[in-house]
Amino acid sequence: MERGLVAEIDLQAVSHNFGVIRQMTGGRPVIAVVKADAYGHGAVEVSKRLVGDGAEYLAVAFMNEAIQLREAGISAPILVLFDPDVKEAFEYNLTPVVGTLKAAYDLSREAVRRGRHITVHIKVDSGMGRLGLRCVPDNCCDISECEKVIIEISRLQGINIEGMMSHFCDADLKYLSFARSQISVFDTLRKNLSAAGLHIPVCHLANSAAVMSLPEAHYDAVRPGIMLYGCSPLDGVDRGLVPAMSVKARILALRKLPPGTSISYGRTFVTARESLVAVMSAGYADGFNRLFSNNAAVLVKGRKAPVVGRVCMDITMVDVTEIADVSEMDEVIIMGGRGEERIGAEDLARWSNTIPYEVMLSIGSKAKRIYI
Ligand SMILES: Cc1ncc(COP(=O)(O)O)c(C=O)c1O
Fold first, then answer.
1. What is the predicted pLDDT for the residue at 138?
2. What domains appear along the chain, each with residue ranges and CATH number?
3. Given 35, 123, 301, 366, which residue is catalytic?
């Protein structure tokens, strides 16, 4: 038996979610965010599927992720969000995101040296406080300053500005007022650049939450990640998204234990009745967070079974006393559905005080992935 979890990735669900995004955005071009190994779903397989479905661009965080896609034969445009490496951008025909004047000069010099052009997208910091040309109207900068820098970049030899982007800082956009001020900054900048004779054809701002809740941020293309994987960034609103990842373990052993038996490290759980306890093949080494100790459920035979005691490194105990006909080697669903019951990344995130992004990543990248 192999260790740990199996993650089943449903590529049909990815295609379906891509279709939902197209529909919500009136057919806008999609820059599919496949960074961090497609949020734990496998970047090569997911990217091939999305490009086959018609996704116009892919977006990754770092050059090595983009190179992995190129080496897998993917020739679609790839936006590299956070990595200024000049040489690799040229060698692998990638589209770097430029957030400083220096990065633009470095690319221009290399373009001249190679006798080539490079296509870039400009990153504007409209309030995220992370990367990009600062364009937050405050004491230290203003829109016209940012505008001047972008115009300077557009005049550099060998640089072709195809896109301009910014990023929302309220990922779930629960409070829209700051997001709207980000849109307003982005809008003004775009219009001013246009008036100054610089038309940037692909302006993009919308992450998944904005795809769902801010049509005014859809611009020329949208840049969703988590929606593609079937998880809604907005609490309680799924708009027909289908989760693409199901995660499964097995029951290694079943034990009938008398009342008063303590279970696992630290004796944090003691049986109150005669109990049937299943030992399942997943622990924190597999991304099954230790915060799930006494604080999560799994599905056995389509019914919820609570985690009892502390999650161990490789195994975890669940109480199956209430569930009929359980046998050793039965399947345990950690994330996914069976019949009426479902455990979503959102549930696991709530139980471990994090966000679904981290759950998908930590479980998805450690599990053995199979594609269906
Ligand atoms: C720059 C950028 N754009 C888009 C996304 C996609 O965001 P989401 O997964 O919330 O749609 C991310 C995700 O972290 C990001 O960093």
1. 59
2. 11-229 (3.20.20.10), 245-371 (2.40.37.10)
3. 35
Catalytic entry in 87, 102, 191, 265 = 265
Q: Does the model's pTM come out above 0.90?
A: yes
Distance 224 CA to ligand 1 centre (A): 6
pLDDT at site 237 = 82
Q: What is the mean pLDDT of the chain?
A: 95
Residue 82 CB neighbours (<10 A): 15
E strand intervals along 133-240 = 133-134, 159-165, 202-204
Confidence of residue 352 (pLDDT cuts 50, 70, 90): very high
* Separate counts of helices (H) and strands (E) for the chain: 11, 19
- Sign of the dihedral defined by the CA atoms of residues 97, 102, 106, 112, in that order: positive
Q: Which residues does ligand 1 sit against, CB inside 6 Å? A: 33, 81, 167, 171, 207-208, 223-226, 233
Position 46 scores a pLDDT of 98
Does 265 qualify as catalytic in the annotation?
A: yes
Q: How far apart are CA 110 and CA 78, in angstroms?
A: 19
| Pairing relationship of beta strands 202-204 and 133-134 according to DSSP bridges | unpaired
CA angle (128, 132, 135) in 5-degree steps:
70
35 catalytic residue (yes or no): yes
Instruction: Convert 199-230 to b/e letters by CB count within 10 Å (16 or more is b).
Output: ebebbbbbbbbbbbbbeebbbebbbbbbbbbb
Q: Under a CB-based contact definition with an 8 Å cutoff, are residues 83 and 63 in contact?
A: yes
Cα dist. 234→158, 164, 170, 227 in Å? 41, 26, 11, 10
- Pick from 123, 167, 226 the residue to mutate for probing ligand 1's pocket: most ligand atoms within 8 Å of its CB: 167
**Which of ligand 1's atoms lies nearest the C-alpha of 165?**
1
> What's the pLDDT tens digit per position in 253-262?
999 999 999 9
Closest ligand 1 atom, residue 167 Cα: 1
Q: How confident is the model at residue 137 (pLDDT cuts 50, 70, 90)?
A: low
Q: Which ligand 1 atom minimizes the distance to the CA of 211?
A: 11
User: Rounded CA gap, 57 and 61, in Å?
Assistant: 13
Residue 142 has pLDDT above 80, yes or no: no
